[in-house]
Design goal:
Elements lengths: L1 H21 L5 E5 L29 E6 L2 E6 L8 E5 L2 E7 L4 E6 L5 E6 L9 E6 L6 E8 L16 E5 L5 E5 L16 E3 L2 E6 L3 E6 L6 E3 L2 E3 L1 E7 L6 H4 L10 E3 L2 E5 L4 E6 L4 E7 L9 E2 L4 E5 L15 E5 L25
Antiparallel strand pairs: 1-4, 2-3, 4-5, 5-6, 6-7, 8-9, 9-10, 10-11, 12-13, 13-14, 14-17, 15-16, 18-19, 19-20, 20-21, 22-23, 23-24
Length: 352
């Protein structure tokens, strides 16, 4: 019997080895993979060094962008532009977008630029790193999803605006680009950072929409001469009543944050919206009324911190601080904005 069993055990061992090789550990370790470090937008590092020394400098350049009808030269990094940090095997790399229109991959130890990818306009915000496997390919890959301003030389009404793009970490080549069309908001930029949850991309766009995209390269469709990800959902981030106090300033510049089964995002229309990952709908609306551009931050006790840019409707006139804590799990709050409201709760467009 022993002579009979050996030929059976050996192929089983070989098969296990082959399967294990196909399921090898990822070559990538994501150290800082998105804006503010994680899906809650609240990571501030682990341990500060005792001192800081300059090891290298890399010039980020300058680029032209348009504010209204005026062209301006912007230099350096955008005000929400943070470097992403990733390890590939034993090497550290930085991914960074700058106001000179370029997304760069740099050696973290030397500052050497390994590749550059040119956008059509200034890059103000931070990208997101996403590990994925293409269909029929067992090798894990890494893409960067990055937003920018709309595109120098293009009107906001142009049909050729692609301010959200995916770029290969390895080669710096474009994977896809997403066309943003103008709506009631005056802007078509993408300053916010997308969030990837279970293989789907969630992003707030400055045209006042929250979109859900399929970022997988093999699912991208031909759009003009480019590849574009499929749009699975599109949710408006304002009410019709918001157009009166805000005009066309309905811009969403923030990045979505996750708390439990909801994604939260602030809007220039004066709302903090909650998107339900289970029902695929926006089912939570905390109305402030003031312009809000900052991203929501999730606290350890399941609150959401939201910043107020400026008062528009008078709703925030009594507020003594520009940071408002919103308790998601309690129906009432003792502050001046007592509860989350649906559109039916506030037909007058005022806080209650």
């Amino acid at each position: 019997m022993k002579l009979f069993r050996k030929p059976i055990i050996l192929p089983a061992v070989i098969l296990f080895a082959l399967l294990s090789r196909g399921m090898a550990e990822s070559p990538y370790t994501l150290i800082n993979s998105t804006y503010l470090g994680n899906e809650k937008r609240n990571y501030y590092g682990n341990k500060a060094p005792s001192r800081l020394d300059i090891l290298w400098k890399t010039y980020l350049g300058e680029g032209i962008t348009r504010i209204g009808r005026e062209e301006r030269v912007w230099r350096g990094s955008g005000w929400t532009g943070q470097p992403l940090l990733v390890a590939e095997n034993d090497s550290l790399f930085i991914i960074h977008g700058a106001l000179d229109h370029h997304l760069r991959k740099m050696d973290a130890l030397t500052g050497k630029i390994l590749w550059e990818y040119a956008f059509s306009d200034a890059i103000k915000g931070t990208g997101t790193l996403w590990k994925y496997r293409a269909a029929g390919d067992s090798a894990e890959k890494l893409m960067i999803i990055q937003g920018s301003r709309r595109g120098v030389g293009h009107s906001t009404w142009s049909s050729e605006l692609y301010p959200l793009r995916a770029v290969s970490f390895g080669s710096g080549e474009e994977i896809w680009r997403y066309n943003v069309r103008r709506g009631a908001s005056y802007s078509t930029d993408v300053d916010g950072t997308p969030l990837i949850v279970d293989g789907l991309l969630y992003a707030g766009l400055e045209n006042a929409y929250f979109v859900v995209l399929d970022p997988h390269p093999e699912k991208a469709e031909r759009y003009h001469e480019y590849r574009q990800p499929q749009t699975l959902e599109k949710h408006r981030l304002y009410d019709e009543a918001d157009k009166v106090p805000h005009g066309q300033n309905l811009v969403t510049e923030s990045s979505p944050a996750r708390l439990g089964d909801h994604l939260y995002i602030t809007s220039g229309s004066g709302h903090v919206y909650g998107y339900n990952l289970e029902t695929r709908k926006i089912d939570w609306d905390f109305f402030v009324g003031a312009d809000m551009d900052g991203s929501p931050v999730v606290t350890a006790d399941s609150c959401i911190l939201v910043s107020v840019e400026k008062d528009i409707s008078g709703a925030a006139a009594e507020c003594s601080s520009s940071i408002l804590p919103v308790r998601r799990t309690v129906p009432a709050w003792s502050g001046i904005f007592p509860r989350a409201m649906t559109a039916e709760d506030r037909p007058s467009g005022k806080a209650v």
